[in-house]
Write a structure and sequence with these properties.
The protein is an alpha+beta fold and 109 residues long. It has three helices and three strands. It is globular.
Length: 109
Amino acid sequence: MANARTSYVCLPCRVSYKQPYDRTRQRICPRCAEPMIHAGSAFATPRRRDAAAWRTLSVLLNAGVGFHKSCCGGPGYRPRTLRDVRERMTHARRSGMPVAEALVRRDVA
Protein backbone atom coordinates (compact mmCIF):
# COMPACT_ATOMS: atom_id res chain seq x y z
CA MET A 1 0.00 0.00 0.00
CA ALA A 2 1.34 3.46 -0.92
CA ASN A 3 2.06 6.10 1.68
CA ALA A 4 -0.65 8.69 2.22
CA ARG A 5 0.13 12.01 0.59
CA THR A 6 -0.34 15.28 2.40
CA SER A 7 0.15 18.96 1.56
CA TYR A 8 3.18 21.06 2.43
CA VAL A 9 2.90 24.83 1.90
CA CYS A 10 5.43 27.58 1.22
CA LEU A 11 3.75 30.85 2.23
CA PRO A 12 6.27 33.28 0.62
CA CYS A 13 6.03 31.50 -2.77
CA ARG A 14 2.28 30.80 -2.45
CA VAL A 15 2.62 27.16 -3.51
CA SER A 16 1.79 23.77 -2.07
CA TYR A 17 3.04 20.30 -2.89
CA LYS A 18 1.51 16.91 -2.10
CA GLN A 19 4.18 14.59 -0.76
CA PRO A 20 4.29 11.42 1.34
CA TYR A 21 3.98 12.21 5.04
CA ASP A 22 7.18 11.82 7.05
CA ARG A 23 7.27 13.29 10.54
CA THR A 24 11.08 13.18 10.76
CA ARG A 25 11.88 14.97 7.49
CA GLN A 26 11.74 18.77 7.08
CA ARG A 27 10.41 19.69 3.61
CA ILE A 28 12.21 22.47 1.72
CA CYS A 29 10.57 24.61 -0.96
CA PRO A 30 12.11 23.93 -4.38
CA ARG A 31 11.55 27.58 -5.40
CA CYS A 32 13.05 29.53 -2.47
CA ALA A 33 14.78 26.84 -0.34
CA GLU A 34 12.86 27.87 2.80
CA PRO A 35 11.21 25.31 5.12
CA MET A 36 7.64 24.39 4.22
CA ILE A 37 4.71 24.05 6.63
CA HIS A 38 2.74 20.82 6.91
CA ALA A 39 -0.87 21.80 6.08
CA GLY A 40 -2.60 18.40 6.13
CA SER A 41 -4.29 16.03 3.74
CA ALA A 42 -7.58 17.96 3.50
CA PHE A 43 -5.90 21.20 2.37
CA ALA A 44 -7.14 23.02 -0.76
CA THR A 45 -4.67 25.52 -2.22
CA PRO A 46 -6.02 29.01 -3.00
CA ARG A 47 -5.12 30.67 -6.29
CA ARG A 48 -1.70 32.30 -6.20
CA ARG A 49 -3.08 35.78 -7.02
CA ASP A 50 -5.67 35.64 -4.19
CA ALA A 51 -3.67 37.66 -1.64
CA ALA A 52 -6.47 37.79 0.97
CA ALA A 53 -6.84 33.99 0.98
CA TRP A 54 -3.08 33.56 1.43
CA ARG A 55 -3.03 36.07 4.32
CA THR A 56 -5.88 34.15 5.97
CA LEU A 57 -4.05 30.88 5.38
CA SER A 58 -0.85 32.33 6.79
CA VAL A 59 -2.61 33.28 10.06
CA LEU A 60 -4.14 29.80 10.34
CA LEU A 61 -0.95 27.86 9.66
CA ASN A 62 1.23 30.08 11.88
CA ALA A 63 -1.30 29.61 14.72
CA GLY A 64 -0.93 25.84 14.37
CA VAL A 65 -4.29 25.19 12.73
CA GLY A 66 -4.02 22.42 10.16
CA PHE A 67 -6.30 20.89 7.57
CA HIS A 68 -6.35 17.27 8.69
CA LYS A 69 -9.15 14.82 8.04
CA SER A 70 -10.92 13.62 11.13
CA CYS A 71 -12.68 10.45 10.06
CA CYS A 72 -15.54 11.30 7.70
CA GLY A 73 -16.16 14.89 8.75
CA GLY A 74 -13.15 16.52 7.11
CA PRO A 75 -11.07 19.17 8.86
CA GLY A 76 -14.04 21.05 10.33
CA TYR A 77 -14.65 24.79 10.19
CA ARG A 78 -11.86 27.11 9.02
CA PRO A 79 -12.32 30.87 8.44
CA ARG A 80 -12.14 31.84 4.77
CA THR A 81 -11.93 35.63 4.97
CA LEU A 82 -9.79 38.14 6.83
CA ARG A 83 -12.93 39.51 8.50
CA ASP A 84 -13.66 36.06 9.98
CA VAL A 85 -10.06 35.81 11.19
CA ARG A 86 -10.19 39.28 12.80
CA GLU A 87 -13.45 38.44 14.60
CA ARG A 88 -11.99 35.24 16.02
CA MET A 89 -8.71 36.89 17.02
CA THR A 90 -10.63 39.64 18.83
CA HIS A 91 -12.74 37.01 20.59
CA ALA A 92 -9.60 35.12 21.64
CA ARG A 93 -8.00 38.29 23.01
CA ARG A 94 -11.11 39.32 24.96
CA SER A 95 -12.00 35.90 26.34
CA GLY A 96 -8.48 34.61 27.01
CA MET A 97 -9.12 31.62 24.73
CA PRO A 98 -6.11 30.22 22.83
CA VAL A 99 -5.91 31.68 19.30
CA ALA A 100 -5.84 28.27 17.58
CA GLU A 101 -9.01 27.25 19.40
CA ALA A 102 -10.81 30.49 18.56
CA LEU A 103 -9.89 30.23 14.87
CA VAL A 104 -11.64 26.88 14.44
CA ARG A 105 -14.88 27.89 16.19
CA ARG A 106 -17.79 28.31 13.81
CA ASP A 107 -19.58 30.84 16.01
CA VAL A 108 -18.03 33.47 18.24
CA ALA A 109 -20.30 35.17 20.71
